[in-house]
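Annotators were shown the component list below and the corresponding predicted structure, then asked to write short factual statements about the assembly.
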Amino acid sequence: MTALAFILATLAFALFGLSTDEHHRKRLGNRPDAVTVLRMRGGAWAAVVAAFPFAIAAQGWVFGPILWVALLMLGAGLVFLALNLIPAPAGRK
Amino acid sequence: MSDLGDKGFRQSQAFLHTWSGLLLGWVLFAVFAAGTIAYYREGLNRWMRPELARVEQPEKVLAGAQRFLEDKAPDAKSWFITMPGATAHGGTAFWVPQPKEGETRRRRRSDNQVTIGANGEPATVRETRGGEFFYRFHFDLYYMPVIYARWLVSIAALLMLVAILSGIVTHKKIFRDFFTLRRSKGQRSWLDGHNATAVLALPFHLMITYTGLVTLAVMLLPWATAVTFPKEGAFFEALYPEGPAVERTGRAAPLVDLTAIVRDAEAQLGGKAGYVEVVEPGDAAARVTVTRSGSTMLSSRTPHITYDGVTGKALRRSPETGAAVVTAGSMIGLHAGRYSSDWLRFLYFLCGVAGSVMVASGMVLWTVKRREKLPDPARPHFGFKLVERLNVAAIGGFPLGVAAMLWANRLLPVEMAGRAAWEVHCLFLAWGAALLLSVVRKPQPNWVALLGLTGVLLAALPVFNLFGTQRGLIASLWSGDMMMAGIDIALLMFGAAFLALARRVARHKPAAPRVRRRAAAPVQPVETAQMEPAE
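Structure shown to annotators:
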C-alpha cells in the first residue's frame, strides 16, 4: 500500500514537472500546447488525490495523512532532482 | 484588487519576507540545524558512547536496573528507569533519596544516575551529553537562562512563520517555477535553490514552525491558563494527573519483579513502555507507574498505569485525556517525530536539512542580491559587511562547532573532570573561533577555510571510528547495526558535501562586477576617472 501511494505521488509530480514548458521541451522534445498541459495537470492532481486512500490503508487515519504528505514531499523531491540532474537526451536541449 | 494595490501588497510582503528572515536568521539556522540533528538524538546517544553494546533484550536491562537500584538505593524516595528501546544506548536509572530535614531538594541528577548496559550490568561509559545536547540546545540554547533562550527561540520561530507565509505570498511564482533549477547562474541559482528547498518541504516547514510554537504556547500565551487555573500548580496537576501522594508506612516489603509489571502494562497500554517510576521502593506502600513510550503513538502525552509495588496489582489508569490535550500532544508529537519509523525519520531529517539549507541560502541571498547594487563593491557599507560576516560566522561556524564537538567526544580523556561540559565548550570554542575569523578576515577565504575544515573533520570521524573504536563502519554493517552505520555514512556524505561546497566557493570568481560594468557601460569612465587621482 505504501509503495502504491509512493508510486502515485511520484507519478503526480513527474506529470507536474513535465507539464512545465522547459522540462517538457527538454525531455519530450516539444513545447506542450495548452490542452496537453491541462491534461497533464489534471492527471497529476488525480494521482495526488488517488495516493491518499492508499496511505490511509497503509497506516490508518492517525499516521496515514502524515505518510501521504511525506510521500508527496519525497516524490516531489525525487522528481525535482531527476529532472534537473539527469542530463536530457542529446539534441533536445 | 487593482494592479497597483496588488503590487503594493506584494512589495510589502517582499519587504516583510526579507527582514523577518534576516533579523534572527542566524539564531534560526543554529536552531534548525540542531533540531535536525536531534531527530537522531537516540542514535547519537549511542554513537557518542561507542563503548556500549547494542541493546537486544530490553528486559535484561530493566532487570539489571532493578538489581542495581535495590542494591544501591533500597530506601530511596523514588526511582526512575528509562526503558531502553531498540535504538537507545541502554537504560538510564536514577534515584531521588529521601528528603532530609534542612537540605535543599535540588541535587545534581548525575550524582544519582547510572547507565545500565545491554548485559544488564552498570556500564562504565564516557561522560557525554550525547544527542541530548542537540535536543536541548534546539530550544534552550546554552550559556543563558532557559527562559530567555526560549523567548528568543520563540521569537525566531514567529519570524520564521512570518517569513514562510510572506514568502509564499511574495513569490507566487515559486509554485510555477517549482521544477526549475538553473545551475551556475549566480543570483538565479541561489534563488532557485532557496525556492526548491522551501517549496519541496513546504508542508514540513509550515508544520515544524507552527507546532514548534505550540510546544512553547503556554509560555508565550499564559493568559488562558492563568484564567482557567488561577492556583499555582493547578495547571500541571490537570495536565499530568497523579494519584494521591504515597505515604511511607515504614514496613519493609520486597518490590515485585518490574519486568512482569512492564509486560502487563505494555499489553494494557497497547504499546511499548517508555519509562518506569517507582515510589517508595522496598516499602509496603510502594507504587510502580509505567508510562507508554512516545515512540508508539502520535501524541506526546502518553497514558500510564499505576501498580501496587508489592502485590503487582493494577491500581489505576491515567484518565482519558481531553480534546485539547490530545491536540497539543499530537502537535508536539508531530514536531518531535518520536513516533516515526526509520524511513519516516529519515524523511524528517531530510526535510530538516532542506530547512537548514533554505535558511542559509536565504541569508546568503540577502548579500548576493545587494552586492550587485552596491555603489562600490570593494567597500560595502557597514550593514552589508555585518550581514556578510555574520553569515560566515553562523552558517560556516555552527557546522564546524558540531564537528569539533564530535571530535571532542572521541578525543577528550575519559577521566577528565566535567568532560560532558567540555565537549559542549569545544563546540562553542570552534564557533567562537569562526566568529573571530570572520571579524578579522575577508569573507571569501573564510568560507573556503570553514567549509573545508568542517568537511575534513566530519569525513575523518568515520575513519577514526574504524580504528579507534569497536564500532567502526565495517563492524556496524557486519553486525547489522544500521543506526551506527547510518550515522557514519551520513558523516562521510556531509563531509564530502562540505568539501564540495568549499571547492565551489574557492573556484568562484565574483562575476558580478564584470556583468555590472558591461550592463552599465557608460558608468565605466566615471569609475576610471575616480581612480585616476589615487594613482
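Statements collected:
1. Chain B has 22 helices and seven strands.
2. The radius of gyration of chain B is 27 Å.
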